[in-house]
Amino acid sequence: MSDLTWQWRDAGSGAFGHSQRIAGSATFLRVQPAYRAYLAHANACGEVGEIPGVCCETGRQLYEDWRAVRDIP
Question: Which helix (H) or strand (E) holds 32?
Fold first, then answer.
């Protein structure tokens, strides 16, 4: 069972609001370390490509690790 829910977000003055998918604490705690590792590498990696930080083998592996953890129901 997923702990992802939809929550209404007001967009502020003069704009329309929207629904936003929100992760519960279990999902957040599982995904955050993998995402931080990927972002740290993407910011430090000198390689340039379509997806930042994914041009080198390390970047590709961190990206795939993050996506795998993120997509676990």
Answer: helix 25-44
pTM over 0.70: no
Closest to 70 measured CA to CA, from 41, 40, 42, 36: 36
Specify whether the CB–CB gap between 56 and 63 falls below 8 A: no
Question: Which residues have a Cβ under 8 Å from the Cβ of 24 and sit 6 or more positions away?
Answer: 3, 4, 5
Per-residue buried b or exposed e for 40-70, using 16+ beta carbons within 10 Å of the residue's own CB: ebbeebeeeeeebbbbeeebeebbeebeeee
The answer to whether residues 45 and 34 touch, using CB atoms and an 8 Å cutoff, is: no
Tell me the C-alpha distance between 41 and 66, whole Å.
12
Quick one: tokens of 7? 């929550």
Question: What pLDDT score was predicted for residue 57?
Answer: 85
So what's the pLDDT on residue 1? Answer: 41
